[in-house]
Amino acid sequence: MARNVFYSFHYAPDSWRASQVRNMGVITGNAPCRDHDWEEVTKGGDAAIKRWIASQMSGRTCAVVLVGTNTARRKWINYEIEQAWGSGKGVVAVRIHGLKNSAGLQSAKGGDPYQDFNINGTPLGSIAKTYDPPYASSTYVYDYIQANIADWVEEAIKIRNRY
User: Where's the Thoeris protein ThsB TIR-like domain (predicted)?
Assistant: First the structure.
């Protein structure tokens, strides 16, 4: 059975990379937000964005943080991690900088998306996992994520259930 997950990522630079992961067909996730729809949500301010995130997370078992160059420490990425963990969902980070974007370019490795979080004094990064595909070729990075992401999600859910 495919898990239903919430994808968290920095939209502008990583939407193409994120769509590659979404379209692998290994796990299902929240529907991508079209630019126009996102503009409508953001017009409502922070409260509207929080409601949208809550509605997208509803019924999900895990948050998959797709980590690009500038994902770490972004306001809404941090909020999504906090909300996922706080509501008992698994949290797993997958580095996607090795996937090519629409221009055929890879990007630089980004920071730790968990760096601002502690769980009872323990850094979240020592609890929740971050996976970094060990390849330079975008094709191999894709294949590695596709072959492993379902297991990473299952492991994240098990980890969360222990805390």
Answer: 6-100
Distance CA 51, CA 69 (A): 27
Q: How far apart are CA 136 and CA 43, in angstroms?
A: 39
Model pTM score: 0.94
Q: What is the DSSP letter of 3?
A: -
How much is the average pLDDT of 121-128?
96
Max intra-chain CA distance, the chain: 43
Q: CATH number, domain at 63?
A: 3.40.50.450
Residue 93: CB partners within 8 Å, gap ≥ 6?
Answer: 64, 65, 66, 67, 113, 114, 128, 129, 130, 131
Number of structural domains (the chain) is: 1
Q: What is the pLDDT of residues 62-115, one digit of tens each?
A: 999 999 999 999 999 999 999 999 999 999 999 999 999 999 999 999 999 999
